[in-house]
Amino acid sequence: MQSVALLMRACQRCTACLLHHQPWRFLVTGISEVDLPRITVPHKMQSRLQKIRQRQRQDQPTIKKSVFKSPLVISCKRGNFNHHRGQTYNDFGPQALASYGWKSRKSAGDYFTVVCHDKNPALASEESAKRFEDLHLDESLVKAVHSMGLVVPTNIQKSGTPAILSGGSTLCAAETGSGKTLAYLLPVLTMLLQRRTLRGEEEAVNSPSVIILTPSRELADQIMRVVETLQQHVDFTAYSVCGGRGTKGRLAWPVRRPMDILVATPGVLRKLLIAGQIKPSGLQHIILDEADTLLDDSFMDSIDRVLSRLKIPTLDSGVSGGRVVSPGGLDTSDTGFIGGVQFVLVSATVPRALPDSIGAYLPVDALQQVTSPGLHRLMPHVPQKFMRLLPSQKSPELVKLVRSEVEKKAGSMMIFCNSSSTCFYLGHLLEEHSLPAALINGDMTEKSRQGVFERFQEGRHDILVATDIASRGLDTINVRHVVNYDFPNFVSDYLHRAGRVGRVGSHTSGLVTSFVTHKWEVDLLWQIEISVRKSADLHNVNANIKRKISAEYAKRHGTTLDAL
Ligand code: AMP
Question: Which pTM does this prediction carry?
Answer without folding.
Answer: 0.77
